[in-house]
């Protein structure tokens, strides 16, 4: 085996990072997700690896500060391609979660000839056509342009009010943007040096075209996009996947939901109707959770959707502190967490060092196992779920075995 890993993905949030981890693992690559920049020794024997961050919720200046340190260290590792993994709905702004600022830093630090941007992910219901991004919503398969999407357009921090990604990104970067639309994916024009190239993706066939475009490290070692990047590259790489299976969790079940998306709220309601006990997030909510779990009750700890939804950091802090206190007092085999910011905060507070995939569950939200030496989370199975992921019974199914939709 070559000592060079095929891919490093840098996730701008935790749920997006486990999404990429899932695709690569199912594609047959030995993959681990780290919460720090690993050493050469850490990645020995891995075909791919990831680094989970919370940059999607950070200021543009903080993104620049972090990536100026992180990118040169990653580039110094034996890795073929570097993927800056962003949410497939591209929710970002010039001030918060700026994808454009990340691109500017990458140009300055890595000096690529150009940077390809691929937002589409057909398997997740994300389609980019003539530069406009569309996303599936709910379990009925309805697809909306982002600026009309029932959830993404109403995001409490970075609402997507512009579906044209050329216009959207132009507000965040100083670099020129070229659009390569669906008509030219199989015969793309030459990209001007120093430019950003935004590529449409509509069908699974387009992934094959994108695989040919992206797997060119001498031209563009740094790639920006959704997990469609992994899907595209896997059409080029030949690995033998091993089947993964797992058993239902044992003991009382705990869901921690910091997401206020309509999908997550619906999943919380379904869990409560199915017998889970409700605890609303407060400074002392962990006490009620511990009591109920000790009594053998299943619990959903969630934030009240009627509170000020812009205070995401406070919600994440309370969720993270609650998670640690609960795990210090009650033994559970699997923890389900909903919400990107919540997932990242809990992972940091539990001192998780790395994750590996145990088995698929629902596309984009696999079951993973934590390595967290000295933490009550060491060896814990977790599911990190984005706000838009899963059917209404997701929180029930997340504790069962051999299930996927």
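Sequence proposed for the structure above (405 residues):
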């Amino acid at each position: 085996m070559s000592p060079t890993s095929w891919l490093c993905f840098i996730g701008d949030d935790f749920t997006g990072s486990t999404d990429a981890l899932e695709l690569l693992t199912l594609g047959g690559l030995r993959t681990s997700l780290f919460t720090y920049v690993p050493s050469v020794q850490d990645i020995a024997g891995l075909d791919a690896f990831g680094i989970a961050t919370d940059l999607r919720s950070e200021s543009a200046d903080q993104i620049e500060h972090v990536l100026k340190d992180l990118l040169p260290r990653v580039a110094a590792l034996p890795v073929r391609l570097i993927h800056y993994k962003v949410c497939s709905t591209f929710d970002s702004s010039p001030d918060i979660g700026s994808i454009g600022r990340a691109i500017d830093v990458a140009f300055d630090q890595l000096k690529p000839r150009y940077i390809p941007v691929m937002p589409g992910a057909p398997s997740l219901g994300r389609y980019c056509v003539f530069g406009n991004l569309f996303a599936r919503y709910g379990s009925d398969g309805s697809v909306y342009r982002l600026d009309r999407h029932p959830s993404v357009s109403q995001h409490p921090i970075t609402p997507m009010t512009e579906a044209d990604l050329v216009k959207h990104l132009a507000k965040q970067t100083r670099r020129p943007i070229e659009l390569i639309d669906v008509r030219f994916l199989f015969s793309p024009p030459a990209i001007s040096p120093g430019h950003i190239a935004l590529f449409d993706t509509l069908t699974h066939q387009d992934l094959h075209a994108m695989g040919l475009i992206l797997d060119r490290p001498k031209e563009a070692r740094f790639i920006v996009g959704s997990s469609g990047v992994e899907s595209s590259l896997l059409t080029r790489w030949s690995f033998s996947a091993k089947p993964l299976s797992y058993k239902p969790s044992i003991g009382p079940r705990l869901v921690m939901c910091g997401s206020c998306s309509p999908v997550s709220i619906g999943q919380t309601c379904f869990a409560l109707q199915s017998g889970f006990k409700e605890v609303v997030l407060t400074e002392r909510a962990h006490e009620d959770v511990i009591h109920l779990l000790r009594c053998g009750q299943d619990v959903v700890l969630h934030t009240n959707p009627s509170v000020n939804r812009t205070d995401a950091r406070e919600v994440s802090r309370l969720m993270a502190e609650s998670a640690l206190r609960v795990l210090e007092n009650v033994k559970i085999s699997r923890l389900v967490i909903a919400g990107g910011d919540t997932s990242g905060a809990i992972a940091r507070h539990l001192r998780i060092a790395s994750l590996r995939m145990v088995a698929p569950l629902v596309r984009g939200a696999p079951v993973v196992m934590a390595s967290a030496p000295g933490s009550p989370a060491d060896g814990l199975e977790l599911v990190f779920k984005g706000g838009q992921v899963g059917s209404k019974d997701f929180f029930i199914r997340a504790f069962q075995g051999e299930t996927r939709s």
